[in-house]
Amino acid sequence: MTKPKVVLGVSGGIAAYKACELLRRLTESGHEVRVVPTEAALHFVGAATWAALSGQPVSTEVWESVHEVPHVRLGQEADLVVVAPATTDLLAKAAHGLADDLLTNTLLTARCPVVLAPAMHTEMWEHPATRENVATLRRRGVHVIEPASGRLTGTDTGKGRFPDPAEIFAYCRQVLARPDAPQDLAGRHVLISAGGTREALDPVRFLGNRSSGKQGYALARTAAARGARVTLVAANTALAAPAGVDVVPVSSTAELREALLAAAPEADAVVMAAAVADFRPAAYATGKIKKKDDAEPEPLALVRNPDILAELSAHRARAGQLVVGFAAETDDVLAHGRAKLARKGCDLLVVNEVGETKTFGAESSEAVVLGADGSETPVPYGPKEGLAHTVWDLVAARLG
């Protein structure tokens, strides 16, 4: 079988060394990768490193191997071009069609999907010129991943950090899997909850559930690949932030509710994939609850938590907002799902069967998506990204 051909562009930022991990993931997963660094990038990682890791020759100038016409052929033959990191300078050149080296020539000749993963200081990312260049590129259909927030070069901290290479790889996989798919969520803001809430009993114990957050993260990852601006409210997960996604960490149901209500007014769609605790302890013990010899523990009194999904459905933060819920059931799945859909008042409800070895923590699942309009969309067993795309297909159709 022919290996998918990927051009990995590397521009001159300190994050260039992290692109080595992205290159390794691409090559080990069966892609043929040609690395095209800029001259500035070679100050950070040498050509020998790129050649050894890719098994392919490395060039920066159009004057090398002229008989192969690399400035045209590389872009024409590629299935994907990804530039990671993409500096401010690279974004400006790409937006204005400049072509002064092999990488910028490749960007102009590429007819395949193009992914740019910016990395720079916060002031550069927020500069009006950069913002306009990014908007221009996105209008043309280029995938420009939002940078992460965190530690930058030196002691600086802010937005502009290079996303986790594993998550950039996952983003590229999404794009390669749907190369001709339109950016049908471009210009939309989607709000997603993921993970499982925890309700504290005392300083060391809590009531929780088995949710890993993998389905919510798959929803966030696929929405970003389809062009959406994504806010992910994550409850107690151990997963890396998806590339291009703003992550808001929370723990309890109260914190989850507060974060969702704060972000909902800007969202076109809200997807409640988190496993939210229905109950919490009636009283919190400020000290660790001690085990008493020869005595049974006192009964644990519980009180009901707010119903966040019903609240979001009943009080839409903006006109036309879509609300999607999840129902994890252990028996009589569809009957309970239909009853929950009517009770919660949401537009779509994803119903799946759960258990100790089903759905929670797994990489795959199956479900039925119920619509308030009476529709039923079965999703066969498969990767959670497949279920996520089905959800976004339904959301995008309803958003128009």
UniProtKB/TrEMBL annotation:
UniProt lineage: Bacteria, Bacillati, Actinomycetota, Actinomycetes, Kitasatosporales
UniProt cross-references to InterPro entries, sorted A to Z: CoaB-like_sf, CoaBC, DNA/pantothenate-metab_flavo_C, Flavin_trans-like, Flavoprotein
Gene3D superfamilies named among the record's database cross-references: CoaB-like, Flavin prenyltransferase-like
Superkingdom of the organism of origin: Bacteria
Cofactor(s) needed: Mg(2+); FMN
Protein name, per record: Coenzyme A biosynthesis bifunctional protein CoaBC
Region (Phosphopantothenate--cysteine ligase): 190-400
Family of this protein: In the C-terminal section; belongs to the PPC synthetase family. In the N-terminal section; belongs to the HFCD (homo-oligomeric flavin containing Cys decarboxylase) superfamily.
Pathway: Cofactor biosynthesis; coenzyme A biosynthesis; CoA from (R)-pantothenate: step 3/5; Cofactor biosynthesis; coenzyme A biosynthesis; CoA from (R)-pantothenate: step 2/5
PANTHER family hit by this protein: HOMO-OLIGOMERIC FLAVIN CONTAINING CYS DECARBOXYLASE FAMILY, PHOSPHOPANTOTHENOYLCYSTEINE DECARBOXYLASE
Organism in which the protein naturally occurs: Streptomyces evansiae
Reaction equations catalysed: N-[(R)-4-phosphopantothenoyl]-L-cysteine + H(+) = (R)-4'-phosphopantetheine + CO2; (R)-4'-phosphopantothenate + L-cysteine + CTP = N-[(R)-4-phosphopantothenoyl]-L-cysteine + CMP + diphosphate + H(+)
EC number annotated for this UniProt entry: 4.1.1.36, 6.3.2.5
Chain's gene name: coaBC
A Pfam family recorded for this sequence: DFP
